[in-house]
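INTERNAL TRANSFER SHEET
From: sequence group
To: structure group
Subject: protein acetyllysine N-acetyltransferase

Please process the attached sequence and return the structure record in the designated field. Keep the field labels unchanged so the import script can parse them.
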Amino acid sequence: MTELNDLIQAAHKIVFLTGAGVSTASGIPDYRSKNGLYSAGKQPEYLLSHTCLVREPDVFYQYVTNNLYYPDAQPNVIHQKMAALVNQGKATIITQNIDGLHVKAGAQESKVVEFHGNLYHVYCQKCHQNVPYQEYLKDLHHQGCGGELRCDVVLYEEGIDQNNVEQSIQALQNADLIVIVGTSFVVYPFAGLIQYRNPKAKIVAVNREPISLPAGSLMIQGDAVQAFEQVDI
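Return from structure group:
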């Protein structure tokens, strides 16, 4: 575990690539574990799709509001240490997570790429006005114009915001250390970002399960909370 701290201390420009495993210690379930949202008998690929949003907006709304929102969740030590490194000008975070906890931990917002969007950014599909997420949790319909609200996250069948892609690629090309944390690293295009890295950059992953990494990478299999507790800030 101390290897992670040594690498972070030696690095000049770090990119953190983070997934759902970063937020489990904050009480937010992950997706692909035995009891996650993608476990047997559930159909998140449809329920979180653009097709479901359009064809069955009530079904989509019920699934999202009942399963994805954890407004009382607080950042844990992983978010906090990453935020400190960002605010020192040493790191950029690229996250699959839609829970907003990296920014809630205090990380400079311009240095956090929320690759798949943010649940707490909500807008009306009819008038395009931004709406507080608390209103969305109470009612699917916009009180202003009667249009249907949606959270600003990337659904199945939708494309990634091009600005997020470009910012991610630029950060990876400038990094001398890439730290992959809490992700199965199988969801594309997120997992494909690694191919745009600076070829001289060191790669380390911290995850409960081993993941597929480029040759020469370091795999730290274990609890990311314990690993980041040992990172000096």
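Handover comment: The longest helix spans residues 162-174. The radius of gyration is 18 Å.
Transfer complete.
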